[in-house]
From TrEMBL:
GO terms for molecular function: hydrolase activity, acting on carbon-nitrogen (but not peptide) bonds, in linear amides. SUPFAM superfamilies: LmbE-like. Keywords: Zinc. InterPro entries: GlcNAc_PI_deacetylase-related, LmbE-like_dom_sf. This is Putative Diacetylchitobiose deacetylase. It comes from Streptomyces afghaniensis 772.
Length: 244
């Protein structure tokens, strides 16, 4: 176990855009940082590639999608995020490629963020804990789209639609990375992160027999404290930061 300390995340920015595959991807660890940022007056918007419609075994996708969309909007509101968009790719079979890059580049041009956040794009969570293909596809496409958004010639149809190039993304921060470099103090946001994840109640009740609040609080607190061992002992959310 390395004891290298994580660096504080840059804070000289005003707008962030979080791009992930599924409802709950941001709530499993990242939303304490988002609460801290919105408290500080920063704008954060969410873009989800899918509605998570294939995420609950006992619920068919046509009913599951709208329900998880509602849970995601409620979950975002708890941490001060009101802009939540869905790209309507298909849950479980998101394809990495130019269609996905184009959709994410369009979202970046609409929101004009300095900081883009996504979830682990690598094959594993570390060791032999295999990642899902949706996370890999969306994470990679987001890292790529941060560049695509600034180039008027890569997706010229976006410019024709009035979405001007945005070359202002300075960093892409990857949550859930097994090789993090930076962190955000989660002390002030942790309680809201618990309530934010709890909004995914249908999903969590299908996932575990434990009391939802006990499960959520245990999971998030344990992760934040483990990260804190590399961040001066404060509970923290870690990111692998890619500068641009
Ligand atoms: Zn996910």
């Amino acid at each position: 176990m390395t004891t290298t300390q994580l660096q504080p995340m840059p804070d000289d920015w005003r707008r962030a855009l979080a791009v992930v595959a599924h409802p709950d991807d941001l709530e499993y660890g990242c939303s304490a940082a988002i609460a801290a940022w919105t408290d500080g007056g920063r704008e954060v918007a969410y873009v989800l590639a899918t509605r998570g419609e294939a995420g609950i075994d006992t619920l068919e996708p046509e009913r599951c999608g709208p329900l998880r969309e509602r849970e995601q909007r409620a979950s975002a509101a708890v941490v001060g995020v009101s802009a939540v968009e869905f790209l309507d790719h298909k849950d479980g079979v998101i394809e990495y490629g130019t269609a996905l890059r184009r959709d994410i580049a369009a979202a970046i041009r609409r929101h004009r963020p300095e900081l883009v956040i996504t979830l682990n794009h690598r094959d594993t969570w570390g060791g032999v804990a295999w990642n899902t293909p949706d996370h890999v596809a969306v994470g990679r496409a987001t890292l790529d789209a941060a560049g695509d958004a600034g180039n008027r010639w890569i997706f010229p149809d976006l410019t024709e639609q009035g979405l001007q190039p945005w070359d202002g993304v300075r960093w892409v921060a990857v949550a859930g990375s097994s090789t993090p470099t930076h962190a955000v103090d989660a002390t002030s946001g942790l309680e809201r992160a618990v309530h934010s994840l709890l909004e995914h109640r249908t999903y969590i009740e299908a996932l575990t027999d434990e009391d939802p609040e006990t499960y959520v609080r245990g999971f998030l607190t344990q992760h934040a404290e483990a990260t804190g061992e590399r961040f001066g002992g404060r509970p923290a959310v870690a990111f692998e930061l890619f500068g641009r």
